[in-house]
C-alpha cells in the first residue's frame, strides 16, 4: 500500500504485450518497463517465445527498473528458467535513471502512482530512456479520473511534448483494487520532435497516493469489537501492519473498516507545485 502496488490480472498483462506487438514495438526492439509489479516483462518474453520458438534472441531486449527487489528477483528467476531476454535493475525512480539507460529504448511501459506527481515523474524517467526519435510509443496505464484531473494530465503530456494516440477505457483489470473499481485505462502516447522529460533532477516531493492524500482509518476487531486507529502519522501505519501485529486486546487478526477520513496534506515538490499553480 505504501508504494501503490496493485498488480493487474494475467489477461491484462498479456493484452499489454499484444498491444506492444500491434504497435510494432516488440520484435527486435529494446523495451523498458518503468516499474513492473504487473510482470509485463514476463508476458512480453513469453509472447516472443511463442511466436518464435527456439529463436528467442531476435535482438530483442526487455529491461526492467523497479524499487521492489522481491519483484526483480522473481522476474530474474522466471527469465532464467524460461530463457527470456529480460534484464533487471534496481532503481529508485525519485533519482534520475543511470546514464547507461539514457537514449537506448524504442518504447516503455509504466503504471505509475495515480497522482499527477507520480505520473509526471515516471513518464519523465521513461522519456529520458527513449531514443531521440519521433513516433516512439509509450504505454501508460492510469486510473480513470474526473474531467478536471484528466485535463491537467493532458496539459502535462503537452508540456513534455507527447502526443496522445489512443485512450482505451477499462483496458486494465487489477486484483483487489477497489479504490479504482478494479479497472484502469490504457493511454498510448507517441514521442515527437518536442519530447523532453518534465522532471530531470532528483524528486524530493510526495508521489504516492498515501503520501499526498493522508488518511486516518478506524478499524474494529471482528473477534472482540475493540477499535484501533491506523494512519501514516500514527503508531500503526497500514492495515497490513495491524494484521501482522494483531489486536492488542484479544490477539485477533481480522478487522473491518468502520471510518475513514483525510488526516492532512503533504507539500508537493517545488516544480510540481509551481506547475500546479500555473494550472490553477
Distance N to C terminus: 30 Å
Total count of helical runs of at least 4 residues: 8
Mean pLDDT value: 86
Share of helix among residues? 25-40%
Category by helix and strand content: alpha/beta
Which range does the strand content fall in? 25-35%
Low-pLDDT stretches are 265-280
| Rg from Cα | 20 Å
Side-by-side strand order of the widest sheet: 3-2-1-4-5-7-6
Mind describing the biggest β-sheet? Answer: 7 strands, mixed
SSE topology string: HEHEHEEHEHEEHEEHEH
Number of beta-strand segments: 10
Principal-axis shape equals: globular
Summarize the structure.
The protein has 280 residues and is of the alpha/beta class.
Q: What are the SSEs and their pairings?
A:
Blueprint: H1 10-22, E1 30-34, H2 40-51, E2 61-66, H3 69-82, E3 86-90, E4 107-110, H4 116-129, E5 137-142, H5 147-159, E6 162-173, E7 183-191, H6 209-212, E8 213-221, E9 227-231, H7 239-245, E10 255-265, H8 270-279
Parallel strand pairs: 1-2, 1-4, 2-3, 4-5
Antiparallel strand pairs: 5-7, 6-7, 8-9, 8-10
What do you see in this structure?
The chain is of the alpha/beta class and about 280 residues long. It is built from eight helices and ten strands. The protein has helices at about 10-20, 40-50, 70-80, 115-130, 145-160, 210, 240-245, 270-280; strands at about 30-35, 60-65, 85-90, 105-110, 135-140, 160-175, 185-190, 215-220, 225-230, 255-265. The strands form two sheets. A seven-stranded mixed sheet has the order 3-2-1-4-5-7-6, sandwiched between helices. The chain has a three-stranded antiparallel sheet with strand order 9-8-10. Strand 1, helix 2 (about 40-50) and strand 2 form a beta-alpha-beta unit. Helix 1 (about 10-20) crosses helix 2 (about 40-50) and helix 2 (about 40-50) packs parallel to helix 3 (about 70-80). The radius of gyration is 20 Å and the shape is globular.
